[in-house]
Amino acid sequence: MIHEHPLKILKHAKNSIWLLIFPILRGVRTFSLDFDAFYTWITGGWFDLLVLIAILGFGYFRWLFTWIRLGNNHIRVISGIFVKKRTEIPYKNITAVTAQHSFYLRPLKAVRVYVDTAAGALGTNDMTFLVHRDEFKKLQKKLPKIKTGEKKSFKYRAKWYNIVFFSFVFSSSLSGAVYVAALIFNAGRIFTDIMKDDLDDMYKIADNVSRNMSAGTHVDIPTPALILGFIVIGTWLLSFLANLFRYSDFIIKKDTHIMRIISGAFTRRVYHIMPEKINYLDLRQSFITKLFRVSSLNISCSGYGNGKNELPVLLPVLTRNQADEALEMLEFNKYLVKRKVKPLKTSVMSYAGQPLTIVAVILVLSLIFIRFFPQFAHIAKYIAVILEIPFIWLVIVKLYAYMTTGITVEDDFCCIRYSRFYAFHTIMADRSKLVKIQMFQDIIDKKTGRCRLDFYFCSENPRVHKVKGLSVKDAQKIIEQFGVLEKGEVMDEF
Fold it and tell me: What CA–CA distance (Å, rounded) separates 149 from 157?
């Protein structure tokens, strides 16, 4: 039986921070410039001290009555002073154990540990605790050890330029905006007040830059358009740096029984993953990397890559040949195959229709705005161009997705190629991992004999994999291959 790290006392004490309201009220009551009142407040400091002791006391007793037991077959956490709560996880059910060595915890030898299984609440860890580094080593001994000398062992250390390329390709302004939103939310009023004070100065600087750029390029660039461009670039840069620090010094080790992934510059994370608990593999690509036949190998496994702006990356950068070699060396018994079922030739608009519609709507709305507000025509044109660019790019991505999407089912294995937004995915999974397959048709699809197949595989965070523009006949054959329909059986109309 072991206790959590003593730092946990402060974490528990935080829940009783509301008791500080009493010293605050006492201070407000005695607030005065009078010396006697100040003396009275000082002499009553014992009351404030008692409140602080009470806060720390609550934290101490919660820490004292929390125990972690590392049994032979299970790990158990017992907590509670009056009402006991026991959480028990058998080692055989663990999918991943994560050790997070934060830079501010390293001097104190504290490790934050997350234990996950395929069950539990969505997006949460099944067990979380903070322990001393030596105590975590005891838990590590309960997990299978990496046998580097084993015939089927595998070790890979990513090159620094691969991590830079990976971070560059898979960073986005949206992810950076999420970081900024989290910063504003956590910093609260202080951060907001600072931004209010500096907002006018920032606008003046952007206005001066806009005038200088306009004078140098002989193109009048509106200040709002320049500010918007800086925001997009700045949020993308923030996402890039976050990915760079998260995945720096990336190392993966694997043998028959366990896989260990180590990464991170300031916060070092060590993931212990059970290979047999992996749901499926995902070769992820952007439009640019797809053109150059480069991809990133990701996995779906409870406890790995489930956090916000976190990617479940296994091998950051791979060429097509390297991907085949890596799949063979990793002993996943999965491989890349050519697509046997492709979208119908008449299904182009199923892919490019929505972004094309948005492009047309933005154009029409901007023309209407310029018609009724000609004095803002210059700014409206720039904003319309900025809004159009991502959707025009999306049209190009979807047209390429139409030419590369497809499905192959062979024996006990399936390979599904599709796209989601700007990303391309190649899913490789055992047929036994499929939990649901759904055929969908809208009114147009019914008239043209097309449909969409939605695939759901085993996963703690359910994700649908949609393949559009298939013929109903091909879709039914695929469903037959998965064993959902009997041969010759036809799905009911819906």
Answer: 17
H or E element in which residue 348 lies? helix 348-372
pLDDT tens across 56-100, in order? 888 888 889 999 999 889 999 999 888 889 999 999 999 999 999
DSSP 460: S
Residue 467: other Cβ atoms inside 10 A: 24
How many residues does this entry show for the chain? 494
For residue 295, name the pLDDT band (cuts at 50, 70, 90). Answer: very high
Phi then psi for residue 34, to 5 deg, are: -70, 135
Instruction: Give the span between the Cα atoms of 18 and 256, in whole angstroms.
Output: 51
pTM: 0.81
Which residue, among 247, 264, 263, has the nearest Cα to 162 in the 3D structure?
A: 247
Q: Cα(453)–Cα(468) distance, rounded to whole angstroms?
A: 7
Give the Cα separation of 344 and 406 in Å (integer): 10
Residue 400 burial class via C-beta count within 10 angstroms: exposed 0-12, middle 13-18, buried 19 and up: middle
Structure tokens at 47: 């009351």
With H, G, I as helix, E, B as strand and everything else as coil, classify residue 289: helix
The span from the CA of 449 to the CA of 350, in Å, is 13
| Cα–Cα distance, 119 to 88 (Å, whole number) | 13
DSSP-derived letter for residue 304 is B
Terminal-residue alpha carbon distance, the chain:
58
The two structure tokens encoding residue 377: 């025509």
428 burial (CB, 10 Å; 0-12 / 13-18 / 19+) is: buried
Tokens representing residue 89 in the block: 């996880």
Q: Tell me the pLDDT tens digit for each residue of 221-261.
A: 666 666 666 777 777 788 888 889 999 999 998 887 889 99
List Cβ neighbours of 359 (8 Å cut-off, separation of 6 or more). Answer: 388, 391, 392, 395
Kindly tell me the sign of the dihedral angle through the C-alpha atoms of 284, 288, 289, 291.
Answer: positive
Enter the tokens of residue 401. Answer: 């997705």
Show Cβ contacts of residue 137 under 8 Å, excluding neighbours closer than 6 positions. none
> What single letter denotes the amino acid at residue 204?
K
CA dist 361 → 356, 366, 367, 372, 395 (Å): 9, 8, 10, 17, 14
φ and ψ at residue 440, rounded to 5 degrees: -125, 135
Q: Which of 426, 409, 430, 401 has the alpha carbon at shortest distance from 476? A: 409
